[in-house]
Fold this protein.
Amino acid sequence: MALCPSLRAEDAGYFPKGTWTVTTYGSYTKNFINDEAKLASGTVGVGYYLFDNISLNAELSGYHNFQVGPDANISNFEALIRHHLWHSGRFSWFIDGGAGLSYADHRTPYYGTYYNYILEVGTGATFQIYENVHLMGGVRYFHVSNADLEGPLHNPGINATQGYIGLLIKF
């Protein structure tokens, strides 16, 4: 077992600097303040480990927002940083966070705007199931807002909990 940043030399290669990854996962997001928004999504991404166990990722997501008023389909591009803090055998634990820009085909939330920012931060784990394939899952705080670009009447925001599961493939 090792806790970053004081990794043993033999542990530093778990997600070593220079490694590329492809991720794909599905998620479900539910507004925890009220029942106005429930989002289902699929995400694909690519990552590069700038340092041992620390990656920079670019992700594309498609969301469907089940909301009051017309449901919305949302496209999102996001940059995300992931840091694997601990690993043992085939298991790792990480934290991650990111920000993105989104566009919806209907106002999101229903009295919001078409363009929004998405912020996420959370924790998760990987479990190696093949030599370079890892099962990945976690939970995040999820926020959607337009940063008051159209005034307070059109900046309701969504604050939600997001759970996700998918695959991480190392190259």
The two ends are 23 Å apart (CA to CA). Residues 1-12 have pLDDT under 50 and may be disordered.
